[in-house]
Design brief:
Oligomer: single chain
Mean pLDDT: 92
Number of strands: 7
Strand order of the largest sheet: 3-2-6-7
Number of domains: 1
Low-confidence stretches: none
Structural class: mainly beta
Largest sheet: 4 strands, antiparallel
Radius of gyration: 14 Å
């Protein structure tokens, strides 16, 4: 059985492109999106480790963001305990709750 989420049948999903591959804690990064005006949430998602039964390092971190024209600027929290170093998937959600495809970013 293959699960297909209902949002895949809606209008276009939000997009993210460009932007830096590395974003420091406390820093901001700007990405391009044709759907910037409809974005309501931005999150960093730390991927799980498939080698562990319980992955206590997996997390979802809400980001402050601003949208202007076709640009979205996100700010990574300064707290090292909240955002440990490593790779994260950056997602944005539109006003209907539809997520973008992930943009990979590294927090040093």
């Amino acid at each position: 059985e293959i699960y297909t989420p209902p949002y895949l049948y809606r209008d276009a999903r939000p997009t993210l492109s460009g932007g830096p591959r590395t974003v420091a804690r406390g820093a901001s990064a700007t990405f391009t999106s044709q759907h910037a005006a409809t974005v309501r949430k931005a999150r960093l998602i730390r991927p799980s480790a498939s080698t562990h039964v319980t992955d206590v390092d997996q997390r979802s971190v809400a980001l402050d963001f601003t949208a202007s024209g076709d640009r979205i600027t996100v700010t990574v929290p300064k707290n090292r305990n909240l955002v440990p170093s490593g790779w994260y998937m950056l997602f944005v959600d539109d006003d209907r709750g539809t997520p973008s495809k992930a943009q990979w970013v590294k927090v040093p």
